[in-house]
């Protein structure tokens, strides 16, 4: 496929770009971390969003090489911010199931952390819930090794997949990320309030931290705070932005 060849070339030529979106503690408003979100700089004018190329990268297997580049770049940036500003931001990086199934994933992760001198506990991997059902035993083993290194694991887009409670209890994870779909209607739709409250309470019963994504209004923030949600991410606190903009906005 032409696009895959072009994409493969873009990994080699470093035409991928990471944007960073702040994650805040709800009670204090403090920015404790960022999520790295990849874009493809296809030409000077064209910045392609991830949903337009990640699926193709997953199908072709290119996501393994691409994901390694993303992880290394995110860690390099985390270390640069730490050195330049003295502020340690926790870095959240999305990883696809295809990457976690790669037998070299854990050694690769360990290597990148050592090479970039990033404290493993300042990294968190985000895995999308809907993809986690396939090979839960193999997945648990990999995530267990990740956590033994000190790196955190979050379930992304939570509420859209089919995790059973027993499954959730067994998976070695640290955090649930409530899907944006339930936050959008939070202050208007009783159903969304019920689901958000359930996720928050269930997460806490399982000793997980809970973060809400897609928070856009002060009313949503207030509601989440009242429901006991720990953390939040969304346009209210900052859009995904280039590293320089994030540093200017938050660190300097
Ligand atoms: O950045 P956007 O704001 O458009 O991100 C859309 C989706 O793309 C995210 O929800 C995430 O699932 C996926 N995505 C973004 N960055 C990455 C990445 O670095 N790796 C993987 N595997 N998926 C990503
Ligand atoms: O990996 P994940 O699916 O969580 O990626 C987050 C996605 O949500 C990215 O596409 C990001 O650009 C988008 N996003 C982040 N904050 C907001 C928000 O407040 N509103 C909306 N509509 N989208 C958001
Ligand atoms: Mn994510
Ligand atoms: Na998400």
TrEMBL record:
Keywords: Phosphoprotein
Organism: Pseudomarimonas salicorniae
The protein, known as: EAL domain-containing protein
Lineage: Bacteria, Pseudomonadati, Pseudomonadota, Gammaproteobacteria, Lysobacterales
Residues of the full protein shown: 485 to 736 of 736
Domain named EAL: residues: 1-252
Keyword Transport: no
